[in-house]
Model the fold of this input.
Amino acid sequence: MQITTVPSPAHETVLRVHDADIGLTGFIALHSTALGPAAGGLRMRAYDSEAEALTDVLRLSRGMTFKNAAAGLPLGGGKAVIMGDARQKTEAQLRAFANAIDTLGGRYWTAEDMGMAPADLAVMAEVTPYVAGLASGAFASGDPSPVTARGIFQSIRTTARHALGSPVLEGRHVAVQGLGSVGWHLCKLLRAAGADLTVADIDPDRTKWAAQSFGASVVAPDAILGVEADILAPCAIGGVLNADTIPGLKVRAVAGGANNQLATEADGAALHARGILYAPDYVVNAGGIINVATEILRISDRPAFVSEKLAALDATLDAIFTRAAARGVGPDRVADETVAAKMQAPEAA
Ligand code: NAD
Done:
């Protein structure tokens, strides 16, 4: 196996991991360890080129720095990717990649992301201790999605308070895009709070179940972003808030779990110009990494830690909205500045 350093001015360390014999090529990117060991998941995807995989890992690892800092965790930002069809991954690839992670000596902790299952992580954990999100074992934190959904739910309440004048969701209309692990748990919480739901998913079984379970109205996947509602909760894919979709939004606010919802920075400003309150995704969806962090930090009272960090996250979002309103700028801009300040003065994080 060859491990080589890839020069990247904005990142602390970027490694290319390659082993021709077992068909393995991947990257590990440590964006920042200023606040603690870098933490972020491992993604396996059929990238078209190494350049595309590298771009993805650089962007995602930077995003983890922001998310971990916003959540007040003593963790930095990192991410890893393996190139290839996740359905064809081999144990040899997982073991070799785990070996590469191990060479960093704990500067990077990996976890589950797209294309990786708990069983894959279990294989990697046999090779290196720097694997979190395990299903079993000491401090194992399991599926993070319910905690992610809890964080999104409280963010939606806070967003409603700022955008609609009250956090009460009874009778409010929320449009949810994506009914996967996160979207489904979120719908449960929203429905229990009395919200009316309109949902979309590319999987018709999921929308059928949502209609049955939550009395949700169902629209086609390409219609959900144009639904007239109080709040839109994107919980499927990234880049959904862009120059094509923003003009057609008919909501007062956006607060959801998907990563990288804004296609570009300009899209945050475009939402602000339209008077739509945007709850920054990496603040809203940090519940998952908070849950995973209990494993990395070896927290024995996980429920207490999670509750405390989620409450702090809510206070952070509230402060971001308040500051953004006072300055007349979008919350995404204030969120980025808040994180930058935490990076400058780590003890305040
Ligand atoms: P998932 O794969 O379980 O669910 C995604 C759902 O979105 C699936 O049901 C899929 O069919 C649907 N979908 C895909 N494309 C769609 C489209 N164009 N329109 C409508 N539906 C579509 O994933 P998840 O774990 O629920 O994560 C959802 C999002 O939240 C992702 O962006 C993920 O990165 C982010 N996120 C997840 C967690 C977590 O704890 N799982 C934490 C932080 C962020």
Observations:
- The two ends are 38 Å apart (CA to CA).
- The longest strand covers residues 24-32.
- The chain is about 40% helix and 15% strand.
- The pocket of nicotinamide-adenine-dinucleotide is lined by residues 144-145, 148, 177-183, 200-203, 206, 221, 235-238, 257-259, 285, 288 (CB under 6 Å).
